[in-house]
Automatic annotation (TrEMBL):
InterPro entries: NAD(P)-bd_dom_sf, Sc_DH/Rdtase_CS, SDR_fam. It comes from Orchesella dallaii. It comes from the Eukaryota. Pathway: Lipid metabolism; fatty acid biosynthesis. Keywords: Oxidoreductase. This is Uncharacterized protein.
Length: 302
């Protein structure tokens, strides 16, 4: 029998061996031999490549985790073994998602935060450290979008968009990294957008596009600055995704246009995006930093 890595599998293997040795019942022997084969398979898996995605013992935070893409990422990180803090401007949304995770047996914490305020981002990290004692993964995902013709874009639209999408991502990176750099380990993932590299149309969104392009370049900068001290920084850039952000009644015509403009002829489901985050948090991404992973159903290829 192949050596087993998981202690519970080792115990199970010992029980099977002992019972096999002590029984002469042919039916029981047959069943135990089958059980032994299953333990072997589980043993190979527990040491195999999929195990490198496991996040057991790690602590994560997802900003904007109260709905949409952030909620889906929070569930995925929790299912991979992490304890997950849900940080959102809307506390009740964060509490709902935290309760969803707890009902699956995943330790969670709901935090109210406005990421555009540096002090609140620092307090968010302190709350996580008080509850869980550590922080290994930061997913800085909170974001907003507004639309206007560029010549009419108000100062308020510009500054608010930058404050949440760019300043917010930076303040979170900074607050998370201060702890992670001390510990010598951290995985930071920022949610950018394909709007960082293509100009969306027909809707006009200069502030959003500029903010997301800045998030990508900030990610590249931080990703090179902190990686030799154990902290990688990467970003995901989703294409049009089916969330509250894109589900409004007035967007129905646009949604059809966006689907048609996408080689896969559909919007992303939130679950389509979690693989990118799980890759960046896994041991398989140990040599990956400053990278922007575009997940857009082929949109930016056309
Ligand atoms: N939906 C898309 O098509 C799409 C495409 C590409 C990128 N993105 C990006 O993905 C991220 C998530 O998008 P989504 O579609 O899930 O959005 P969403 O609007 O469904 O959810 C965003 C969440 O962020 C929270 N939030 C907003 N402002 C905040 C603030 N100042 N501080 C803390 N939390 C705040 C909201 O309360 C909400 O729960 C955003 O950064 C967005 O720009 C979305």
């Amino acid at each position: 029998m192949a050596p087993v890595a998981d202690p519970s599998l080792e115990k199970l293997e010992a029980i099977i061996k002992e019972t096999l040795a002590s029984t002469s019942d042919p039916k029981l022997k047959e069943k135990l031999t089958r059980a032994q084969e299953l333990v072997n398979t589980a043993s190979i898996r527990s040491k195999g490549v999929l195990n490198k995605f496991a996040l057991d013992g790690q602590v994560a935070v997802v900003t904007g985790g109260g709905q949409g893409i952030g909620r889906s990422i929070a569930h995925a990180l929790g299912e991979a073994g992490a304890k997950v803090a849900i940080a959102d401007l809307d506390l009740s949304r964060a509490e709902t998602v935290a309760a969803e995770l707890e009902s699956k047996g995943i330790s969670s914490l709901a935090i109210k935060v406005d990421v555009s305020k540096k002090q609140e981002c620092e307090e968010m990290v302190q709350k996580i450290l008080s509850k869980f004692g550590d922080l290994h993964i930061g997913v800085n995902n909170a974001g907003i979008v507004m639309n206007s013709d560029s010549e009419d874009t108000s100062e308020r639209e510009w500054t608010t968009t930058m404050a949440v999408n760019l300043n917010g991502a930076f303040y979170c990176c900074q607050a998370e990294a201060k702890h992670m750099l001390k510990k010598g380990y951290g995985r930071i993932i920022n949610t950018a957008s394909m709007s960082a590299i293509v100009v969306n149309h027909p809707q006009k969104q200069v502030a959003y596009n500029a903010s997301k392009a800045a998030v990508v370049q900030m990610t590249r900068t931080l990703g090179t600055e902190w990686c030799d001290r154990g902290v990688t920084v990467n970003s995901i850039s989703p294409g049009y995704t089916d969330t509250e952000l894109t589900r409004a009644e007035k967007l129905v015509t646009l949604r059809n246009m966006w689907s048609n403009d996408t080689p896969m002829k559909r919007l992303a489901d939130v679950e389509d995006l979690v693989g990118g985050v799980l890759y960046f948090t896994s041991q398989l991404a140990n040599f990956t930093t400053g990278f922007n992973l575009v997940m857009d159903g082929g949109f930016t290829c056309w």
